[in-house]
Amino acid sequence: MGEAGIRFTVLGAVRVVRDGCALTTGSPQQQALLTALLLRAGRATPAHELLASIWGEEAPDSALSSLRTHAWRLRQIVEEDRSAPKVLVSLRDGYQLLVPPRSVDALYAEELAAGAARARATGQEEECGRLLAEALALWSGEPLAGVPGPFAEQQRSRFTALRLALVEERFAHDLRQGRHGLVIPDLIGFTHEHPLQERPYGFLMRALYAMGRQADALAAFGRARRVLADELGIDPGPELSALHERILANDPLLMGRPAGDRDQPTDAGGPEPEPPTEASKEAPAPTRPAQLPADISDFTGREEQVQGLYRALTDPARPSLAVVSVTGMGGIGKSTLALQVAHQAKPEFGGGQLYADLRGNGLEPADPGAVLGSFLTALGIPGHGMPASTEDRALLFRTTLDGRRILVVLDNARDPAQIRPLLPGSADCGVIVTSRAVLAGLSTALQSDLDVFDTGEAIALLRAIVGAGRIDEEPEAAVELVALCGHLPLAVRIVAARLAARPRWRVATMTGRLADERLRIGELRAGDLAVAAVFELGYRQLTRAQARAFRLLAPVTRQGIGTAAAAATLGMDEYDAEELLEALVDAAMLEAPRPGHYRYHDLVRSFALQLVGPEQPGPDEADGDDGAAALGRLLDFLLDGSCAAFQTMVPGDPVGAILGGRPEAGPRFATLADARAWVTQEFDCAANAAALAAQGPTGGDSRTLRAAADLLVAMSPFGQDIPYLQLATAARKVADAAAARGDDHAEARARFVCGNAALQYTRLAEAELHTRLATEACARAGDEVILRQILNDRGLIAQWQRRFTDAAMFYDRAVELARRLGHRSGELTTELNAAQARVRSGRPVDAVEVCEAALDRLRTERDPHVTSYAWYVHGMALHEMGRHADAVISYTACLEVCAAARLRGRETQARFMLSGSLRDLGRYDEALAEAGRALALSEELGSQQQRGHCLLALARALAETGDTAGASARAQQARDVYALLGLPDVDQAEELARSLELATAP
User: Fold this and answer.
1) With CB atoms counted within 10 Å of each terminal CB, which end of the chain scores lower, N or C?
2) 740 in helix, strand or coil?
3) Residue 387: which region, alpha, beta or left (left: phi > 0; alpha: psi -120 to 50)?
C-alpha cells in the first residue's frame, strides 16, 4: 500500500496513518462513521444510511447532531486544508470520503484477491502465491476491532470470511506447487479452528496421502464426518466423499507432482475433471435468437459514445471476445445507449442477439444460472436437457456459441462475478454490458463511463417528447426544469412524459412543482437526489386508485405480473385492473413489455417499496388497504389456479382435495398443455408470493403461511416445467417461518417440497433431512395425505442409498396410508417402488407377484405412468430370477408404453436395463445399441443418476464385445458420476473399473 500519503487500516484496529505517522481516530462511534464511509468505496452516503449504519434502526433523537459532530472531527483529522475539504466532503444531507481504494487495506485486500484469481486462471502460479501472501499480511487482528454498529458487524463478518477464503486459496496454491509436507501442520491447525469447513479437510487428506500417510488421510476424513454429523447432522459432501473413495482405492493420481511440475494446475480440494464424452460434444440445431427490446425513436445525444462503442464491438481485427461496457449512475441512460449501439451492430452479428436484464441495481439481482437457462432455451436447448448447475450451463452456453456471430446484451449488471458465467468464449461474438458500478477486473475492449446530459441534449430530449412548440415558448423555464432534474436522462424523460400527457400544463408549472419537492427515498440518493424528486412528483400526479395500485403491486411484482394476477391483488375485475395498469404505463410508472404483462423499472419499484401510506391528494376516501391483504388475495388467486392445474396433471390424487384452494374458481384447462402453460406463466409470481408470505408481518399469519405452503405443493408436480430449485428456495423460507411460529401444518407441506426437490436433484443428504422433518411435522399435524407422499420419497431415498430394509418399511407405511385414503394410483406406484426394493434386496419372486397383480388391475385403467413402471419392475424381477428372455419381453412392453405416452425418463431406465438382459442372453451387439441409446437419452434429459447407470451398462456391453479400453473408460466415468452424487453404486463401478484395468495391464 506504500507509505506516502494517507492510509487507513480496518483489518484489525481502525487506524489512520499519514506519511508514516499515526493519527487519532477518536471515539468508537467516530470510528464507526469513518469505516461506514471508507468501505463504501467513495460512494456518497445520505445521512439516514449513516445513522442506520452506526446506531441501527433505533437511533436516538440526538443521533443526527452527533453524526455532524463526528464528521466535523474526522475532517480535522483527514484534511490537510480544513478550509477547503477535499477528502471528506458534504453532499446534500450526507457525506463522501474521497480516498484511493488502495489506501484502505480492506479494499486493497479485495483487489489482491482478485489479482490472485486472475493469476491462477492464466497459469501464473508464482504471481498468485505472491498476491495471496501480500493480501493475508494485511490482517493484524479481528477486522474493525471495537467498532460498534450493525454496519461494522456486517463488514467484520465479510472480511473475516474473506480472510478464511484467502487462507484456503493459499493452501490450494501450496498443494498445486507440491508443498505437501510443509502445509500439513497449518492445515491441521486450520481444521481444528474451523471444523465445519469441508474444503480444508480435502486439502489435508491430499497432503497426507501425497506424503505416504494414507491411514492419517483416512483418519482426517473420519474426523470430518464425525464433526459434521455431530454439529450439523449431515454427511460430508460428494467431493470430500469422492476423495475418500479415491484414497481408499490408492489412486496414483493423488500422489501429487514435484514442485517443478506446474503446467497442469488442478483443484487441490476435489476430484480431477471428467473427460468429455462424445455425446456431450453434440450441440443442438442452431436457433437464431432476436431478443433485443425495441429501439426508441427519440434517442438523443451520445454520438461520440455510440461511434466508439460500435467500432470496438465490430472491429474485424480484434484478437479475442469484444466486451464493451457502459457504466454510470442510475438513470443516466446506460440501457438506452446500449440498445442503440446493439441495433446499429445487428447486421454484424448474423447469428442473432441475446438480451437479459440482470437486475443488478435492484434488491434481487438475477441469478446467472437462471439467465443461462433462458439463453440456452432461446438457442434451442430443450428444458429437459438443461444442466442443473450454473457452471455446467456456462460450459454448454460457450459450446453452443462457438463459431457463431452472436451479440449478447447484459443490462443492469451488478458486478463481474454475475457477468463472467454469461460471457461467450468465441471471438466471433460481442458483448455489451451496462452497470452502475465500474466493473473492475472485467476485461473490456472499451469502457464508456456516461456523464449526465449537457443542457442542449436535455432540452433536445424534452422537445422530442413534449413537442418543440411548447418548449420553445418557454426556453428559460425549460432550462430551469432540466437543471432541477440534474440533467439526468431518466428524470428528464419522466418529466417530459408528464408534460406530454397534460397538454394544458405550462413548463413553468412543472418547474415550480419539481423545485418545491423534498427528496425522500434512500437508495436513489446514492446516485442523484433529483431522480427521487421526479419519482415522487410522478407518484403525486396519480389518482388515488392509481397510487393504490402502484403501492400494492410493487412487493409482489419482482419480475412481472399478468393482468389476472394483478386484478386479484387489487381486488377488482380484470377489465378495471387493465384500465388502471395501462394508465400507470401511460404515466411511465409501469412498463408493459408485452400485452397483458406488466413490470416496474427497478428504480421505480424501489421507490414504490418505500411508500408507507396513501398520503395521496384527491377527493377519494382512504381505502384502508394494506400489503398483507393484497398478498392474501394474490395467494388465493394463485392457489385456485394451481389446484386446477394440479387436478389436470394428477386427476384423482387425494392431495388435490386437501389443498386450501378452490379449483372451480381457477382457470378451466382443456388440456394438460394448457395447465403447464399457466403454471409456467405464473411461476415467478407464485414463488415470489410464497417467499413474501414467509417474511415481514405476514410471516406471522398462519392463514397466509398455509396458503403459501399449499401453493408450493400444488405446483410441485410441474417440476419439469418450472425451475424446481427456485420453488424449493421459497419452500425453505415458508418452512422456516412456519417452524418458528409452530405451525406444523404449513411446515410439513413446505418441507415436503424441499425434500422432493432435493430428491429430484439427487441431493440425498438434504432430501433425507427435509423429509425427516416433514414426517415429524405431519405426525404432529395429523396430515396423512402429505405423509403418504413423504413416506414414498423416504423409501426412494433409502432405496438409492441401498438401505433396502428401510425402503421397504417406508413403502409399506405409504401403501397402508394410500389404502386408507383410497388413493389407488398412489397405492400402485408405492407398491411397485416396494417391489423394486425387494428385487434389489434379493426377493425377486415377491416382486413378480406384485407387478403381475398391478398389471392385471391396470388393464381396465389408462395410466401410462404406472403401467410403464409396472412393466419395468417386472422386467427387473425376471432378470434377477435368471429369466432373461422373459425380462426382454417385459422391458419391450415398457418401451411401447413409453413411446406412446412420451415417457422419456422411464424409457431411459428401460433401455439400460434391457441392455443387461440382452447381454446375459449373449446378444452383445443389441445390448451395446440399447446402452448407447439410453446414454444419449440420459444426457439429453440431464439426469446424472441415470447417466451413471447408462455408463455402467455401456461399460459392461463394451467389455463383452472385446472393447476393454472403451469399457474401462466408461466404467471410470460411471464411478465418477456416482461418487459426485454420493451414491453407493460407486462400489459396483469401482469394482468393474478395477477389473478392467487389470485386464488391460501388460
Assistant:
1) C
2) helix
3) beta
Q: Long-range CB contacts (< 8 A, 24+ apart) of 916-919?
A: 916/879, 916/953, 916/956, 917/875, 917/879, 917/884, 917/885, 917/887, 917/888, 917/891, 918/884, 918/888, 919/956, 919/957, 919/960
What's the gap between Cα 965 and its chain centre? Answer: 40
Q: How many residues does the chain have?
A: 1002
Which residues have a Cβ under 8 Å from the Cβ of 585 and sit 6 or more positions away?
Answer: 591, 592, 598
Cβ contact 768:233 at 8 Å: no
* Residue 1001 CB burial class (10 angstroms; 0-12, 13-18, ≥19): exposed
- Which residues on neighbouring strands pair with residue 325, listed in sequence order? 433, 447
Q: How confident is the model at residue 518 (pLDDT cuts 50, 70, 90)?
A: very low
- Band (pLDDT 50/70/90 cuts) for residue 530 is very low
Strands 597-599 and 561-562: antiparallel
Q: Which is nearest to 500 in space by CA: 465, 459, 532, 468?
A: 465
Half-sphere exposure (Cβ direction) of 198: Cα atoms closer than 13 Å: 18
SS3 letters for 902-968? CCHHHHHHHHHHHHHHHHHCCCHHHHHHHHHHHHHHHHHHCCHHHHHHHHHHHHHHHHHCCCHHHHH
Q: What distance in Å separates the CA atoms of residue 412 and residue 335, rounded to the nearest whole number? A: 8
Determine contact, residues 685/561, Cβ cutoff 8 Å.
Answer: yes
Looking up cell 384447462, which residue turns up? 669
Q: Which CB contacts under 8 angstroms, 24+ apart, belong to 68-74?
A: 70/26, 70/27, 70/29, 70/30, 70/33, 71/33, 71/95, 73/26, 73/30, 74/26, 74/30, 74/33, 74/34
Look at residues 330, 327, 333 and name the one whose alpha carbon lies nearest to residue 523: 330
Angle between helices 529-540 and 602-609 (to 10 degrees): 70
Q: Give the span between the Cα atoms of 868 and 875, in whole angstroms.
A: 11
* Range name among 91-95, 282-286, 357-361, 544-548 with the lowest pLDDT average: 282-286
pLDDT over 70 (residue 279)? no
- How many angstroms separate the CA atoms of 302 and 716, rounded? 49
Query: Rounded CA gap, 125 and 174, in Å?
Result: 10
Pairing relationship of beta strands 446-449 and 352-357 according to DSSP bridges: unpaired
Report the alpha-carbon distance of residue 898 to residue 912 in Å, rounded. Answer: 14
Question: Which residues are CB-neighbours of 547 under 8 A, at least 6 positions away?
Answer: 539, 614, 616
Q: Which amino acid is at 148?
A: P
pLDDT for 472 beyond 50: yes
Residue 696 main-chain phi, psi, to 5 deg: 65, -160
Would the pTM of this model clear 0.90, i.e. be above it? Answer: no
Alpha-carbon distance of 10 to 107, in angstroms, equals: 10
Euclidean distance between the first and final Cα of the chain, in Å?
A: 59
Encoded amino acid at 938, one letter: S
Report how far residue 707's alpha carbon sits from residue 639's, in angstroms, rounded to the nearest whole number.
Answer: 7
Contacts of 677 (CB under 8 A, 6+ apart): none
Q: Is the pLDDT of residue 285 over 60?
A: no
CA dihedral over 131, 136, 140, 142, signed as positive or negative:
positive
For residue 945, give Cα distances in angstroms to 175, 362, 951.
Answer: 31, 37, 10
Q: How far apart are CA 113 and CA 118, in angstroms?
A: 9
One-letter-per-residue 3-state SS of 558-624: CCCEEHHHHHHHHCCCHHHHHHHHHHHHHCCCCEEEECCEEECCHHHHHHHHCCCCCCCCCCCCCCC
Q: Which residue has the cell 425549460?
A: 478
CA-to-CA distance for 866 and 877, rounded, in angstroms? 16
Residue indicated by cell numbers 434517442: 299
d(C-alpha 312, C-alpha 562), whole Å: 39
